[in-house]
Structures are given as C-alpha cells and as structure tokens.
Amino acid sequence: MRRFPRGGGKRDGGKHSSPNAGLGEAAFAGALGIQLGGLNYYAGEPEQSALLGEPLCRLDRRSILSANILAFVTTALFILASAAILGFAELAFYKILA
Prior knowledge:
This protein is α+β, with helices and mostly antiparallel strands. The chain folds into two domains: 1-58, no CATH class; 60-98. Helix content is 57%, strand content 15%. It has helices at residues 8-12, 19-32, 61-97; strands at residues 36-42, 45-52. The protein has a two-stranded antiparallel ribbon. Strand 1 and strand 2 (45-52) form a beta hairpin. The longest helix is centred in the C-terminal third of the chain and has 37 residues, at 61-97.
C-alpha cells in the first residue's frame, strides 16, 4: 500500500480559484498521490491554475481507476453515514413521541 503525505487538502486547497472546489480537489489529489491543475483549456482559451498535490505517482490508466474507486467509496460512505444519522434521528423522534 502506498503512503502519501497528509495535509494536501489544507495546504493546497486555498490555492484554487474556487474556495469550494479547492479543498476537495486538493484532498483528492493528495489521496491519489497525483498533481492536478496547471495549464487547462476552457472554451479553447488557455488558463493557468495553481498546482494542487504532489506528483508522487505517474498518471496512467490505473490513475483513472483509482480516482473512480475513491469517488465511489467516499460516496458510499457518505450515504451510509447519512442513513445512520437519519435512522438515529428518527428513532429519537419516535422515542420523544412515545
């Protein structure tokens, strides 16, 4: 299992032009051990953005698979945690009414 430095989201999140997207994108880059940002094209116009994360791993097909797995697992954990919280809240609500 590869070990990556912690704190990429906090360290690099503020560099992004969007305060909302920066933390998530930087944390994702750190978790995968890749670097995001740099030169991008929007509507055919070049735009230089801040570099987020460290390029610890070479980008290849496995990077895409790893990103998809990370997105799936974090989504599944969020859904499970939300269901648990809502379940406990519902139990507490019915206990109050009883």
